[in-house]
Write a structure and sequence with these properties.
Layout lengths: L8 E10 L9 E13 L2 E4 L6 E5 L9 H7 L3 H7 L3 H15 L4 E6 L2 H16 L9 E3 H9 L25 H17 L8
Parallel strand pairs: 1-5, 5-6
Antiparallel strand pairs: 1-2, 2-3, 2-4
GO molecular function, one term: exonuclease activity
InterPro entries: RNaseH-like_sf, RNaseH_sf
Organism: Streptomyces cyaneochromogenes
């Protein structure tokens, strides 16, 4: 039987900022993405996360928001009402960008934690474009990746408990592109990390 050809995965670190806990009643206000690297049958090759990036600020889709959630990003909803990109346009542009940077590979969204960012990203993609360039399950959670490699329960994982050499030296600013780039570096470090107790 012939060996199955493994198609490469192109990992894209994505971070979003929103004004509430779930999409629909609340709005995704910004999204940032950075190519983190590619994995094929020969292994993982990191990318410079500043080289291929995407960023948009979006017009809110409802009147509802949670003040505490809005305060995290520091984004101005009133400004975004007039200056934010229409969601359909932003997500169409994002899809085109993903397809361009992942030509020849399968794109995979990587998030920290993926559960929050993926919920908004996938909902917006389906709602405003009708499709997702990642499919319905093309996402990878960095917390789970670390927990598995470290042999820890998932709920025991936090960035503050990770070995310092895994973390990016960039600040986590809650600006979606800054954080996508920072987390792309974390992802590349996690992919190269053999686990605890191994030679550095």
């Amino acid at each position: 039987m012939a060996a199955r050809r493994v198609k490469a995965s192109l990992y894209i670190s994505v971070d979003i900022e929103a004004d509430g806990p779930i999409p629909g009643p609340y709005s995704m206000l910004s999204m940032g993405a950075a190519v983190a690297g590619v994995q094929d049958a020969d292994g993982f090759t990191p990318a410079d996360p500043e080289q291929r990036t995407f960023y948009r600020e979006l017009r809110p889709i409802s009147e509802e928001f949670v003040p505490e959630a809005l305060a995290v990003s520091g984004l101005d909803r009133e400004r975004l009402r007039t200056e934010g990109t229409e969601p359909a346009a932003a997500l169409t542009e994002f899809t085109a960008w993903v397809r361009e940077v992942s030509a020849g590979a399968q794109p995979v969204m990587a998030g920290y934690p993926a559960s929050y960012d993926w919920t908004f990203l996938y909902w917006y993609l389906i709602r405003f474009t009708g499709a997702s360039p990642f499919g319905h399950s093309g996402c990878l959670d960095m917390k789970t990746l670390y927990a598995t490699k470290a042999g820890l329960p998932l709920r025991a994982v936090a960035k503050g408990t990770m070995p310092r050499e895994l973390l990016s030296r960039r600040r986590h600013t809650h600006h979606a592109l800054d954080d996508a780039i920072e987390q792309a570096e974390l992802f590349a470090n996690l992919m190269a990390w053999p686990g605890p107790g191994s030679p550095r």
